[in-house]
């Protein structure tokens, strides 16, 4: 069976409706680009970088944003300034652990190339480690790759699985990578979109659940071999949430926390060695660079709960889309990481949730 998104398999999670693309790009203005590097010479590399534009005018019209560290054995640059100011002023990068600095600097050099006038650049770049399938100490991701991902980013469908920053990643001891999803909600008399994009590189096989079904226990290592991740390690996941709801920075931070719920539904526990770091931004308020004041809106606090639910559901399905899209891959030291078998996934789900006659 070829790879497919979860809903293409006749499976779904949650109850809220998705956006038209069921992707983070359902939030108007958001664009995603990947640069993927798969090569065997002079070193075996399975790596890349993923870029997210909140909007193409992010350099001049900033977005409110907030982040949450569920477990902090990882890196997301720019968060000190984000915590101080609450404003996102550049595209977001996701890559491998050893290439965070290169990608961070590449966003700065891209801004310089484009003649962006800011007092300084402190971009947000996050990571998960791909060293099991890729020779990470060759530091393979380059500034040119990061620039290409920025240039090639687009609205519309988002490539998922072993692409971009997710190329060499592992999820619940199957092949992991990039996944995305979205949800529509009505609150305060308006409709809003919440989109999620994940780079999934975490989790034990026995903890994997799909819509509550213990799929990981039903497809054990005896059936599909996998790289066993020590419980104390746990791997890592980056979650980026976007919404067009008019939120302030503290509300974005609250929204980012709810990615934890979606992660838990799939089977993430925030292990000691895991880097589970989440960021949420809002395109519903824009703040002009150097403006003496800004007129902003704020969704009432009592209207936030539907957004929380949307963030949890979108995160859950984004992780599952990463699993169902990723293909089996052989890499560093001849290691092979097998994809979640989709036919077996359907069989297990049907056994636990038989369709009505």
Fold and architecture overview:
α2 (100-113) links the parallel β5 (92-96) and β6 (125-128). Helix content is 24%, strand content 27%. The chain has eight helices and 14 strands. The longest helix has 21 residues, at 305-325. The chain has helices at residues 79-85, 100-113, 143-152, 215-218, 249-257, 259-266, 305-325, 342-352, and strands at residues 31-39, 45-53, 61-72, 87-88, 92-96, 125-128, 170-171, 174-175, 177-187, 190-202, 235-243, 275-288, 329-330, 336-337. The chain has 357 residues and is an alpha+beta fold. It has a single domain (15-288, 301-352), classed as L-amino peptidase D-ALA esterase/amidase (4-Layer Sandwich), CATH 3.60.70.12. The strands form four sheets. Strands 4-3-12-11-10-9 form a six-stranded mixed β-sheet.
Q: Roughly how many Å is the radius of gyration?
A: 19 Å
CATH class: Alpha Beta
Q: Which parts are unreliable, with pLDDT below 50 for 5 consecutive residues or more? A: none
CATH-level-2 architecture? 4-Layer Sandwich
Give the averaged pLDDT, no decimals.
Answer: 96
Q: How do the SSEs run, as a string of H and E?
A: EEEHEEHEHEEEEHEHHEHEEH
Strand order in space, largest sheet = 4-3-12-11-10-9
- Strand count, sense and closure of the main sheet? 6 strands, mixed
CATH superfamily heading? L-amino peptidase D-ALA esterase/amidase
Helix content: 10-25%
% residues in beta strands: 25-35%
Q: Under CATH, the topology is which?
A: L-amino peptidase D-ALA esterase/amidase
